[in-house]
Fold this protein.
Amino acid sequence: MSQRYEIRFSGAGGQGLILAGVIMAEAASIYDGKQAVQSQSYGPEARGGASKSEVIVSDATIDYPKATVVDALLALTQEACDKYSHDLKEGGVLLIDSDLVKNLPKGNFKTVAFPIINTAKNEVGREIVANIVALGAIVALTGVVTKESAEKAVLSRVPEAFLELNKKAFNMGYEKAIAAKA
Amino acid sequence: MAKKVAFLQGNEAAAQGALYAGCTFFGGYPITPSTEVAEVLSNELPKIGGKFIQMEDEIGAMASVIGASLTGAKVLTATSGPGLSLKQELIGYACIAETPCVIVNVMRGGPSTGMPTGPSQSDVMSAKWGTHGDHPAICLVPASVQELFEETVRAFNLAEKYRTPVMVMPDEIVAHMRERIVFPEPGELEVINRTAPSVPPEQYKPYDTSFGDVPPLAAFGTNYRFHVTGLNKGQDGFPTTKAAWVQAEEERQVRKVEANVDDIVQFEEYLLDDAEVAIVAFGSTSRSARFAVNEARKEGIKAGLFRIKTFWPFPEKQINALAGKVKAIITPEMNLGMCTGVVKGCIDGKAPVHGIFRVDGEPINPGQILEKIKEVK
């Protein structure tokens, strides 16, 4: 993969999307030995408002650190989906929370939908790990980083007491995405 | 042994660079998007016996670093636009009192509170003219996380070498993005320390120009006693209005930088040998420009990039020479033409200069630059 692969994690401020992006980029950069840049954009509010975190992965040097043509987009809210789907490329991956995103953007995308936040809340047990569920799903759908690297990166970023919770969230997201894609 | 690598944010790299350079004091007042510099140093400085102080405001923060510097410490403060405005009075004080200090200013939208989380490059003129009066100005504008580390080290070196404030000004994108960084080993990067006085305390004068344009600076608390003021001062540090001396001193202070431009100015040239269109850019915008240059080359257009690493002193000589070789210059920047004006001012009309300006909180993307290249080629 010598070309850029661009991933955008979007949703509302406070959902942990920046962290999801950081972990994805860390998996690529530190554990998979690729080039990666993570950047973000958010409003002045601490919670709410549309928020995005972008990750560029490449085998070559990454000049422009922001997205140009998005290969994979995660949208956890309708607002984020409306605001950040305009530059998703034809044939790109669109991962949405099926409870929260009802109006899909027009275009030919590989859309994968499952209740991401609800999965975190009711199946993993804590809504706070919705970002890690989403990350597991993105890892499964994009194949840009290996599952092993992503899992290592997740575990290196979370406090000791929450290792199992996050591991469960990551794997649940990974499995659900594969099931939803099929 | 394998080198230590990490996936780090720009601001975190600036803080680590400061520690590498030997910084032992940080006085600040947190402000988005520079807060992580303070955050990291509030954790790290106490571990090495250094001091972290959150002051009552940015003015106090700047005063604290000047005071700490006079005790011999390497000092840092970090801020962003509105905080930089507040610090300006004391930045002038540091210039005239010739007190080494480093200011990391992360550029966000302005003026005033502006756009706290949006990127900008609109403080570059403030770096030179924000404080009143003639004074030396050094301002570094890194474009990557690795470079933010290295340029922070260099900022400390220049501050100590020339006894003057030095600014490091990443835009919000460079400060907030994360990239892989390879930490230099101790000793791998040059670290310059302040020249101590060679005379005993009773003979010491803090501005004794017989030692050259940069007189040695003693540390308070080491038996050396001297006076520090914001007024024009004599060799002993006490106020003076002696006309010839004041004139000579003002000139010397500015000369510390102007006579050493070649030591201070750094830049990077990319595909400029045969270029017909040159882009002059800095910070994150230079990364968009490099992307655009590569795209243009794929289409057979001879484009190249002159990347400014040191904004002040400005690489006037190099850009003047460049203007004589190309058909057009493009200056993309996240402000309404600050760098463009400086470029025009140093090229004697040798080439047309086309600006691309954005102040809407969005980066200048490679597509915009590529379009302009095609328009002016």
Q: What stands out?
A: The interface with chain A takes residues 5-7, 32, 116-117, 173, 176-180, 284, 287-288, 290-291, 294, 363, 365-367 of chain B (CB under 8 Å).
